[in-house]
Design a protein that fits this description.
The structure holds two protein chains of two kinds. Chain A is an alpha/beta fold. Chain A is built from twelve helices and 13 strands. The chains are: A alpha/beta, B alpha+beta. At the A-B interface, helix 2 of A face helix 1 and strand 2 of B. The complex binds pyridoxal-5'-phosphate. Pyridoxal-5'-phosphate binds near residues 97, 176, 196 and 208 of chain A. Chain A: This is cysteine desulfurase.
């Protein structure tokens, strides 16, 4: 079997991930921060160590500014719903996932002004267009760091600089880049960054977070969920202490233990080394597909401008048929269609049919890519 | 021998406190919150015979909110 769906979720996970999760259940099974016994302390320690490691990883000094969530969607909802009030304006790009667009469209119904800056046909965004839109005051700019459809990397630093100059905050959706591209919040200029644990960070599903920059004023961000935190229980109002303000209810300790093991694995192998390996395979795949008659490949031509995602269509063939044949005849697993990102497909000109998406991961081999190219060729010329 | 307890508001700050004190070279331990003290955080830092001002300095440097109590 050839697994080319790492943009949906990475698989297989490093064996250390399930070992850490097993260990958490066997050894550290208490409710972190609710009780004071050994098992509770052990559970809290695992979560604390993960928070600490993630703060380091993203360049944040204060580890309590790493807020754990269930996934990137949950983190984006916390940020979007917690920051925006009716009457305020938000600017985003044309490559966003529905994890951003659906909360925005719902807020639009309640009087938030949403402006979408169209992307170019290779998925790239023009900072000049953002600069023009920022002439009118906006509270927030939201940016998908890399497209889950075409892999196109957004010029986050440049757009963040423009946003800050215009007095807007910056929220970055790093679902496709955390664990794949180096991310340092102060350098990038993100005030808030949403990540997911189950893709590039090699962790289990049910993990993710919102990272708040050290300089971000948390009074501006309301909690999405309120409830028990194991702190200041004498009050029936939500505490202001971080991370408790945004983390009510028993956390996914077992998942967070796995996330730590995934992050450790990425750091041991080295982000740059993983990226270099995936990038080489991406280029082989792009070049091989481009050579086939009737195949159109989407996204930037320069390899530095995308993560290891290749989207394509074949003239005269429906993407669902291609996906089914890759799966049934060649045992190649990928994702076809709109990838929860209709806005991105509109930008690329592939709406409403979508594309076939091949997403490379650290376990993908050169043989996998060669077999995939042969399979696509056979689908075109039976 | 004086037994001291450092109390925090949140689990995360108790763990940050432990880390800061260990980094400063102090021998401390996380224990369940003693009955005599009421804190909502399930555990506290316990120490024995440590220089109070240096201990406080290390916790302040980490930017933590805390209370110190001495128990018999
Ligand atoms: C760009 C982008 N944003 C957000 C998400 C949502 O991530 P999750 O499913 O972890 O909530 C995904 C992946 O599905 C994504 O690719």
């Amino acid at each position: 079997m050839i697994y080319l769906d790492h943009a949906a979720t990475s698989w297989p996970k490093p064996p250390e991930v399930s070992a850490a999760m097993h260990d958490f259940l066997e050894r550290a099974g208490g409710n972190p921060g609710r009780s004071g016994h050994k098992l509770s302390i052990e559970a809290a320690r695992v979560i604390f160590d993960t928070r600490d490691a993630l703060a380091d990883f993203f360049g944040v000094q204060d580890p309590t500014r790493v807020i754990f969530t269930l996934n990137a969607t949950h983190a984006l909802n916390l940020a979007i719903q917690g920051l925006l009030q009716p009457g305020q304006r938000v600017i985003t790009g044309g490559m966003e996932h529905n994890a951003v667009m659906r909360p925005l469209r719902a807020l639009q119904q309640r009087g938030v002004q949403v402006e979408v800056i169209p992307a170019e046909s290779d998925g790239s965004l023009s900072p000049q267009k953002f600069a023009a839109a920022l002439q009118t005051p906006a509270r927030l700019v939201i940016l998908n760091h890399a497209s889950n459809v075409s892999g196109t990397i957004a010029p986050a630093e440049e757009i963040a600089r423009l946003a800050h100059a215009a007095g807007a905050w910056v929220l970055v959706d790093a679902a496709q880049t955390a664990g794949s591209l180096p991310i340092h919040l102060p350098t990038m200029g993100a005030d808030l960054l949403a990540f997911t644990g189950h893709k590039g960070l090699q962790g289990p599903p049910g993990t993710g977070g919102l990272v708040l920059a050290d300089t971000f004023d948390t009074a501006q961000l309301s909690p999405l969920v309120r409830g028990g935190t194991g702190s200041r229980s004498e009050f029936e109002t939500q505490p202001e202490d971080l991370p408790d303000r945004y983390e009510s209810g028993t956390p996914n300790g077992v998942g967070i233990a796995g996330l730590k093991a995934g992050l450790d694995w990425v750091q041991q192998h080295g982000l740059q080394a993983i990226r270099a390996q995936e990038d080489e395979l991406k280029q082989t795949l792009q070049q091989g597909l481009t050579r086939l008659a009737g195949v159109q490949v989407y996204g930037p031509t320069h390899p530095d401008q995308s993560v290891a995602i290749v989207s394509f269509t074949i003239q005269g063939k429906h993407v669902s048929e291609i996906g089914r044949r890759l799966d049934e005849e060649f045992d190649i697993l990928c994702r076809v269609g709109l990838h929860c990102a209709p806005a991105a497909h509109r930008s690329l000109g592939t709406f409403p049919n979508g594309t076939v998406r091949l997403a490379i991961g650290p376990t993908t081999s050169p043989q996998d890519i060669a077999s995939t190219l042969r399979a696509v060729e056979r689908i075109i010329n039976p | 021998m004086s037994r001291g307890i450092v109390l925090f508001h949140t689990t995360t700050s108790a763990l940050r406190g432990e880390k800061a004190l260990k980094k400063a070279g102090f021998l401390v331990k996380l224990i369940p919150t003693p009955r005599e003290l009421s804190s909502d955080c399930g555990f506290v830092i316990e120490f024995h015979d440590l220089p109070l001002n240096q201990l406080q300095a290390a916790l302040n440097e980490a930017g933590l909110e805390f209370e110190i109590h001495f128990l018999p």
